[in-house]
Write a structure and sequence with these properties.
There is one protein chain. Helices cover 32% and strands 25% of the residues. It has 261 residues and is α/β, with parallel strands linked by helices. It has a domain of 90 residues: P-loop containing nucleotide triphosphate hydrolases (Rossmann fold, 3-Layer(aba) Sandwich), CATH 3.40.50. The strands form three sheets. A six-stranded mixed β-sheet has the order 5-6-7-3-8-9, with helices on both faces. It has a three-stranded antiparallel β-sheet with strand order 2-1-4, with helices on one face. It is globular, with a radius of gyration of 18 Å.
């Protein structure tokens, strides 16, 4: 039986954004099917890492550089986006317009925002959208325009969009940004259910409360590098968090969730 390639394999990955070294010879490997959180303060390189994976920005080429996604170094961007479902705050901002939830989810088949006249929608696509909306318990949002949805509802529609291709993994960049407390709790239950169903979840965040119980590994970033990497119980302790975030941090744990202050 052939060995399954890692979901992500990065070695010595560096990225310049303007005059700033956003990633500094970053190295990490994430196995296929693994639930992982990438945690760190603003400006540590988390979002740049997401953009590297989604091919929105490109690393510097130097000796020892490796960037493989699902075992491949070269990808067609549209093919990549059908294998790796990505949900980001930037995508949410782009999709907040007068288009329905169903149109947004259907647009995932074309990697577009909304549906255009030249795009041919098949009965199989419609059936797949119905199935995803039903599975995620958001069928009631299908006919509602994105401008009429709450931030939490819109975020769930984007997750449905990311899942239409049955991707290998779901990559979420700061998923709770701009959500109120109720919406954050709803999103956490939503992600927990997805992870338990077998969808691999890669969560990028600076909020400990985003890390659902099903996530077992935490990679901590600081200054464009991996600062620590290991089992969640060994990573989410006051000493490590204080070092990474640069301030005194205390934590509590309840029902598998962590909270910091």
């Amino acid at each position: 039986m052939p060995e399954i390639a890692p979901l992500l394999e990065l070695r010595n990955v560096s990225v310049m954004r303007g005059s700033t070294l956003a990633l500094d010879r970053l190295s990490l490997t994430i196995a296929s099917g693994e639930h992982v959180a990438i945690l760190g303060p603003n400006g540590c390189g988390k979002s740049t890492l997401v953009k590297v994976v989604s091919r929105e920005c490109y690393p510097l080429l130097h000796e020892g550089f490796v960037l493989r996604i699902m075992g491949q170094e070269v990808w067609d961007v549209f093919q990549l986006r059908s294998c790796l479902g990505i949900v980001s705050h930037d995508l949410m901002a782009t999709c907040t317009r007068e288009i329905t939830g169903r149109e947004v989810v259907l647009s995932g088949f074309f990697s577009s925002i909304g549906i255009w006249p030249h795009q041919q929608i098949t009965p199989q696509m419609q059936a797949r959208v119905d199935s995803i909306l039903d599975r995620l318990e958001i069928s009631h949002l299908a006919g509602r325009e994105m401008t009429e949805m709450s931030s939490g509802e819109g975020r769930r529609i984007l997750i449905a969009r990311a899942l239409v291709h049955n991707p290998k993994a779901l990559l979420l960049d700061e998923p709770s940004t701009s959500l109120d407390l109720h919406a954050q709790q709803e999103l956490s239950r939503f992600l927990s259910k997805l992870a338990a169903s077998g969808v691999a979840v890669l969560l990028v965040t600076h909020h400990l409360a985003d890390i659902v119980p099903e996530i077992e590994r935490v990679i901590m970033m600081k200054s464009g590098r991996v600062a620590a990497d290991g089992p969640k119980e060994q990573m989410l302790i006051p000493e490590r968090l204080s070092e990474v975030f640069g301030c005194q941090v205390e934590i509590s744990r309840r029902d598998g969730y962590y909270h910091a202050w």
